[in-house]
């Protein structure tokens, strides 16, 4: 039984990955938005398969950090001169923050970017990592590392939505998830841009309606996500022009 169960798990893990890869490649934006004149940042959305299900690795920012201490986020940060593109930024930051070696990441795609509170253009880079990966958090940047089943971001147990207005006056909704992690015996609050990327990733991979409202036309997810982003960018650009 042991061997056949193991080979079955291996096969199902492969098909779960394979289906996710195919879906994600359809949504790859490449460098379509890289030319926009905003300061750049990238985050890595590290996917792994555990017990036949996709999981997402997240980090908790160190309490010593000036910006957003103690908040949940993906490994990532600002682009540096040595980075050849958004993928390089995400991989470098993941190595610095949690000890993830770049060659241990199977990069699949870049998804539609977001804009953070500092008006950085933040590109989410999706990659597969091994479920055996042991994070080595850099204490200056990361206080904790945990994983969440990806399905939680379409079928959460504890969810609320916060209406919010961006600095440019763009009205939107902010997803706010509370995830009870039994491994750490802790609850994590996942919200803001991190939740936005996690929800979009889950919508792309599962292709099913979430149990809560989203700002996308789910039948035209590619075009509606790009339109939403361009509207957000346009509202920011307009405000910048008005402030000159």
Mind explaining what this structure looks like?
The chain has 244 residues and is α+β, with helices and mostly antiparallel strands. The chain has one domain: Nucleoside Triphosphate Pyrophosphohydrolase. 31% of the residues lie in helices and 30% in strands. It contains 4 helices and 11 strands. Strands 1, 2, 3, 4, 5, 6, 7 and 8 form an 8-stranded mixed beta sheet that branches. α1 packs across α3. The model has no long low-confidence stretch (mean pLDDT 92).
Overall CATH class: Alpha Beta
Q: So what's the overall shape? A: globular
Give the overall pLDDT as a whole number: 92
Spans of at least 5 consecutive residues whose pLDDT stays below 50 are: none
According to CATH, the homologous superfamily is: Nucleoside Triphosphate Pyrophosphohydrolase
Number of strands: 11
Task: Report, as a whole number of angstroms, the end-to-end distance.
Answer: 71 Å
Order of helices and strands: HEEEEHEEEEEEEHH
- What gyration radius follows from the Cα positions, in whole Å? 18 Å
Strand content: 25-35%
Q: What is the number of helices?
A: 4
- The CATH architecture classification is Alpha-Beta Complex
The share of residues in helices is: 25-40%
**CATH topology value:** Nucleoside Triphosphate Pyrophosphohydrolase
State the major sheet.
8 strands, mixed
